[in-house]
Design goal:
The chain is about 60% helix and about 10% strand. The chain is mainly alpha-helical. A hairpin with a 2-residue loop joins strand 1 and strand 2.
């Protein structure tokens, strides 16, 4: 009868659905308004929900418990329904270890690198260390800095006497090595984390667990590279110092 609570998982009223999902009817309506939950099947003036709605509510709750906002969940589900690539679906997940770009005044950048000439400025731009922001009148008063840390490193190297051209040459070489390392480490993740999920048909219910693995894994390559590089630098510095300042033998 109309108005009665339905206990059938394939035909539930909003109250029954909320109870089954351990949430409230207010939340159900809010999720529906945000597009997180498909509309019910309306029979007469009563909306009925099914097992798919219940699974979706449990997924939303699962993601919220893992710290995802409703806006992030909406973006994720939208990407899922639009059949975007796995990379696009997971791309919104940004780790706390990642740098945030900043905007600086053009004159401020020039002041940080005393003696920089026009050719070097152009090379800094070509390497995308800074990205010019063109004003309405065609002038450049500000720049976008994708990696403030790289600017800081360059400034410190200049301060200890390393020429800017040598710093930029080394950056090019470093990026080449970094690309190779990144490709190898990402392949490790894809082969052993993404591939099994894809082979299983990319089940939506398993997505929260996959997101957790993405979140846990993203900082690991940087930690590993830092640890290995620190050990390599220690060995290299020790070898250079030993060669440059050999111990004097006792007479």
């Amino acid at each position: 009868m109309q108005g009665e609570e339905s206990t059938d998982a394939s035909r539930m009223t909003i109250d029954a659905l909320a109870q089954a999902a351990a949430t409230t009817t207010r939340n159900v309506r809010a999720y529906q308004t945000r597009g997180l939950l498909p509309p019910p099947l309306v029979v007469g003036r009563v909306g009925y929900y099914g097992a798919a709605h219940l699974e979706r509510l449990r997924l939303i709750g699962n993601l919220q418990e893992r710290g995802y906002s409703l806006a992030a969940i909406a973006d994720l589900l939208r990407a899922w329904h639009e059949r975007r690539s796995v990379g696009e679906m997971l791309g919104f997940e940004r780790g706390p270890h990642e740098e945030r770009e900043v905007e600086l005044g053009y004159d401020e950048i020039v002041a940080r690198y005393p003696g920089i000439d026009d050719a070097q400025i152009q090379r800094v731009i070509d390497l995308e260390l800074v990205i010019p922001l063109v004003d309405d009148d065609g002038t450049i008063s500000r720049v976008r800095v994708p990696s403030p840390a790289l600017l800081d490193v360059g400034q410190e190297l200049l301060a200890v006497g390393v020429p800017l051209d040598a710093v930029l040459d080394e950056l090019v070489r470093l990026r080449g090595h970094a690309d190779q390392i990144a490709q190898s480490l990402v392949k490790l993740f894809v082969d052993h984390v993404i591939a099994p999920w894809t082979a299983a048909g990319q089940p939506l219910d398993d997505l929260p667990g996959l997101l957790d693995r993405v979140r846990r894994t993203k900082p690991l390559p940087l930690l590993a590279v830092n640890a290995v590089l620190a050990q390599a630098l220690e060995r290299e510095v020790g070898a250079v110092l030993a060669a440059t300042f050999p111990s004097r033998k006792q007479a």
